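Page 47, continued from p. 46.
Same chain as before, 128 aa.
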Amino acid sequence: MEFTTTRRVSIPRCEWEAAGQLAGVITADERRPLGQVRLSSDGTSRRWCATDSYRLIGAAGGSDSATYDVGVPVAMIRHALHVCDGEEVTLEFGVDDGVPVVTVEGPGGRLTVEDLGHEFPDVARYIA
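Result:
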C-alpha cells in the first residue's frame, strides 16, 4: 500500500504481544509479504493477521476510526515489545524524503525501516 500521508497509531502493549504470538506461528521472511504481520483497520477496528505458505492466523485489535493496511516486520514487533516498552507503543507509517517508511516508537526507543510495499494475500476471504 502506498502512503500519501503520515499516520500515527497508538497501540496498547497487549496488541503488540498478540502480534508477537502471531509472528511466532509463521515462517518469517521479511523480504516477502508472507513473512510480515499485517495490521489493518477498516475504520471501526484494527485486525492483525499473519500468513505463510501453510498457515493463516488472525487477532482482533482495538477500535480505530482510521483506515489503513500496513505490513509490520517481525523484527519491528520484537523491538516494540523489548525495547520500546511502555503501556502503549506508537506505529507510524508514511513517506520520509520520498521513501515509504514504517516506524515504531515508545519510551525506550525508536526503529524506522523502509516499507517494501508488499501486496498481501486476500486474507479477508478466510478471516471474517
